[in-house]
Amino acid sequence: MNYQSTRGNSPVVSAAEAIKLGIAPDGGLFVPTDKVTITYEELANLVPLSYGERATFILKHFLTDFTEEELSQCVDAAYGGQKFDTPDVAPVRSLTGDLSVLELWHGPTCAFKDMALQMLPQFLVRAIAKTGETSHIVILVATSGDTGKAALEGFANIPGTSIIVFFPQEGVSEVQKMQMVTQEGQNVHVVAVQGNFDDTQSGVKQVFGDVDFTGTLKEKGYRLSSANSINWGRLVPQIVYYFSAYADLVKSGTIDLGQAINFVVPTGNFGNILAGFYAREMGLPVKRLICASNANNVLTDFIKTGTYNRNREFFKTTSPSMDILISSNLERLLFELTGRQSDKINTWMTELKESGVYNVDQNTLNMVQSVFWSDFATDKETLATIKKVWVQHNYLVDTHTAVAINVLEKYRQTTGDTTHTVVASTASPFKFNSSVAGAIMGPEALAGKNEFQLLQDLSTFTGWPIPRGLRGLNRRPVLHHKVAGKNEIDQAVRNILL
Ligand SMILES: N[C@@H](CCOP(=O)(O)O)C(=O)O
């Protein structure tokens, strides 16, 4: 399996090279050159396996320049030991006969990003060796809260690498911020950006595209790479949990093998739901992928109309990880759905960059709508959903997961489709505890309390334990104080590296 750029102007590379580079030299995103198909029998064979065994099976189809032994070492290092607080890694909980929740937040940083970011450093270390790379790899990350901490946790003290995480100074939860600024490790840097996530991601992408700067870095012995979902090495481990959830539902007798299900995914940068799309393309029986947005509903509008327009107000919501107006991975989806027409992708991405808007043709829109459905939830609806799920099911969800559940209700009301649906639960409710506590305990419970006091209150009220990774967070020393203007991201990289 090789990898090509969505923009069509970069050489085809191996998986190891694609993972090492992170983003294609022409500014596009790497996608597999060939389609992978999983047969009915292979799907059946996944059912009795452990999460790690399922992962190794899926990964080997995409990372063909890695041996099966290497992949199973990567899997053990990522998901083995005590890193995840359950041996199931990503368990599925059934709430009703037609609704299950895929809990993706049992890793060290309490968000779904751990599913891939415990793995990516393992891939990268091996990719460096495979490609004979001699430069020190510098991982640049733009985060709206979850990727940053998960990447720091994954890459801390990984030999041959450094990591610089940029986060919007006022655009993440208190818990997310503390998780990042208290990160230990000799090779980690964290910078608060005076701007929103889109400013941060655009600034980081600009650094990747600055040929003079990357040339200077090369001379000094540095090569840039990415731990965002623009890196294929981030996406491929995420494909696994769609298969694993399906296998678990078959194993529990909730569905029959071959029966189609839906997934509803809270969506920001479009990486998670895109992994679901690739799983579907591989033959996983998925009827609909429901794309759930918050008030930053650029994707909802796009999926309904075919117009992507980022020229709109940017809202700070209670689901900050999804406060995004430029969803990077949509580029990969459009590449696949247009039959891999790089010229169209180049046109749309140039229009997006220059005017903030592009329109896809009717045929492409039809293709999008044949797989995806989308709507959004306001903050008020999100908090009401958290309360409703708690009261009806005695089950706690975070704000992002609540957005997904609210949008699923809208989907069912609109379409009448009662297909069994899996909600991708992307973060622990304790990560967004003031919103969650306010929703279920009432706003008066928040009075005079900071997020860290509320961790304990939420745990006492619900009987749910505070996740290991969040205990004592407020007592950890703040180790990172750097701040950059939204146009100073390249300068921040220079200051750190040169
Ligand atoms: N929601 C993300 C934003 C970056 O997305 P990624 O999937 O490309 O890393 C975050 O939490 O940082």
The strand count comes to 16
- The shape, in one word, is globular
Intertermini distance: 37 Å
Can you tell me the CATH architecture of the domain at 91-113 and 235-430?
3-Layer(aba) Sandwich
Helix proportion = 40-55%
**How large a portion of the residues is in β-strands, by DSSP E?**
15-25%
Bound molecules: ligand LJ64HWYM
Mean pLDDT metric: 97
Number of helices: 21
Structure description:
The chain has 498 residues and is of the alpha/beta class. The protein has 21 helices and 16 strands. It has helices at residues 15-21, 40-46, 51-62, 68-79, 113-117, 120-130, 146-155, 174-181, 197-209, 211-219, 232-251, 271-281, 298-305, 330-337, 342-355, 362-371, 379-393, 399-415, 433-441, 451-462, 489-497; strands at residues 2-5, 13-14, 30-32, 92-96, 99-103, 136-142, 161-168, 188-194, 222-226, 261-266, 286-293, 307-309, 357-359, 372-376, 421-425, 482-485. The strands form 4 sheets. The protein has a 6-stranded mixed sheet, with helices on both faces. Strands 9-6-7-8-16 form a 5-stranded parallel sheet, sandwiched between helices. Strands 2-1-3 form a 3-stranded antiparallel sheet. Strand 7 (161-168), helix 8 (174-181) and strand 8 (188-194) form a beta-alpha-beta unit. The radius of gyration is 21 Å and the shape is globular. The structure holds the ligand N[C@@H](CCOP(=O)(O)O)C(=O)O. Belongs to the threonine synthase family. It catalyses: O-phospho-L-homoserine + H2O = L-threonine + phosphate.
